[in-house]
Amino acid sequence: MKNFINNKKVMITFISCLVVIVLVVIGITAMRMVAKNSSIGVEAAKKFAYIDAGVKEKNVNDVDVDFEYKDSTYVYCVDFDTDKKDYHYYVNASNGIILEKKIVKKKSDSKKDDKKKSKKKKKRRSNHKDDSYSSVSGGKKIKETTKKVKSKKDNEEDDEDVVIGMDKAKSIAVSSAGESMNNVIFTLAVLDGDTYNLQFYSGNTEYNYSIDAFTGSVISAYSNDYEGSDAE
Fold this sequence. Notes:
Elements: H1 2-37, H2 42-53, E1 62-70, E2 73-81, E3 85-92, E4 98-105, H3 111-130, E5 132-133, E6 144-145, H4 166-176, E7 185-192, E8 195-202, E9 205-212, E10 218-225
Antiparallel strand pairs: 1-2, 2-3, 3-4, 5-6, 7-8, 8-9, 9-10
């Protein structure tokens, strides 16, 4: 009789635990469904990731989207790739904020791709040779002749292998310095390999910038105060 009572208690405890587990699972599933139904949706999550990556949807080869619970937040895990890079994004499921991202440039092992890169490098060198720049000291403006290069709209596949142009590089540097093109005088503007080296004056301040010729990013920048400049 005593064994029967003990076995009955064990059975009741087991059933109670099982019921609790089932209720917890049901609760989690219900919360997940509510969160997913009130989320931004798969298509919106993809668009947020594409916009942040600067990638057009037509250039995406493969994309995979999963609804997950990460760090106490429901997120969309968006994985996609282009011909040149692999992208991994975590997008907040409720508001589209990018919580985490990882971008990896693809490595090409094929001889065909190596030949393409070689042709692009030769073309890049040719563009560099056709760009002519000169500079003078004393605060006078420099003379420059810049060959027009094709824009990203002309060929999106080669957008990473086209220089941004001297005018664009100047604009980026002046904007970064918080100045206006109407108020600055350039004394140096040279395309050196993959870098635009720029020097200009505004008021009593001299600015020196190095700009990536293909991405437009600022590599280095510094300024100095000067007195008695002949800059006009």
